[in-house]
Amino acid sequence: MNKTATCELLLFVSGESGLTLTELSSLAELSKQACQQQIVYLREKYHADEESALTIIETAGKYRMATKEEFSDLLSTYAKTPLNQSLSKSALEVLSIIAYKQPLTRLEIEQLRGVNSSGVIATLRAFDLVEKVGELEAPGRPSLYATTEFFLDYIGINQLAELPEVDEEQFIAEKQILFNESDEDAN
Amino acid sequence: MIEEINIKIDNFEGPLDLLLHLVSQYQMDIFQVPLVPVIEQYLNYIRKMQTLELEIAGEYMLMASQLMLIKSRRLLPTISDDFIEDTEQLEYDLLAQIDEYRKYKMLSQSLNNLHTVRSHYYSKSKTEIITDETSLIKDKNAIDLFLAFNKILELQRQQIEDENTTIEAE
User: Fold this and answer.
1) What is the nearest CA distance from B80 to chain A, expressed in angstroms?
2) What dotted CATH number matches A84-165?
3) Which of A122, B142, B147, B160 has the fewest CB atoms within 10 Å, i.e. the most exposed one?
4) Helix/strand/coil percentages in chain A, nearest 5
């Protein structure tokens, strides 16, 4: 069997759950390096072929076969999977607090935001974006929350280290934009 | 000094968001912002909400009482240096809280941008391949079944909520 076809086949079958390089290499009986090369080759092949709607993306440490970016408008009317759905402002706020300060308790999140956040946490857990990872050794033994592997996939990065940093300059610049926006909302 | 505030309360994610908005009108470093006018604007805003008989989340009232403490301490003649320090600490804590909140508000924006990029890629769900030789591992129990069904219910509920406007008293 052709190496490229094997990799393509496995990626097709795995779909949205994707495959790690290790899984791919053991299934295809190829070295990791060879798999990597095949993926690069496939990606380039798809890219060059204007009659193909496919591409390969790497998120949360897994390779996934996906449709090309330019078809998103067409597909958004057809499909609505949890992955492509966006979150509310409050859910996003809680998610980013958990992402950057994990593991942390509900109380810590609420202190940061100044509002009750239990409903939002339940939503994020239902979407499998955050999970309980343990309990804090404190009175009441509160649960500690952290982000899941799906979270990495959700924002399209491979590891937490790739999270955007707070860039002070950009911070000030975005502050202006942010506030101008909220001023517009006001009127 | 006090601008006409005609924003609805549900545009804000809690009292810190509202304070951040008011502080931002001064267009200066967050720790340089004169607090007393901000406090006045905040209280004014809450009062307006009350006259319109709008539902206000409890957190807004809690913040209002904290702000009133700061304001009253500011206006009272000082007894000792300790007292001034105490008041300054209260103010500083509040500003630090707003600043921290601002950071996460911005970060949540960048996460949203990342997600928007990611959401342009669609995949199909995993193909379930079943052969005659497949044997069951039997590693799932009643709890797993319960949780799995519960998750589906929760997702459904969320979707219905997203698609319909609900009026909720907070």
Assistant:
1) 31
2) 1.10.10.10
3) B142
4) 60, 15, 25
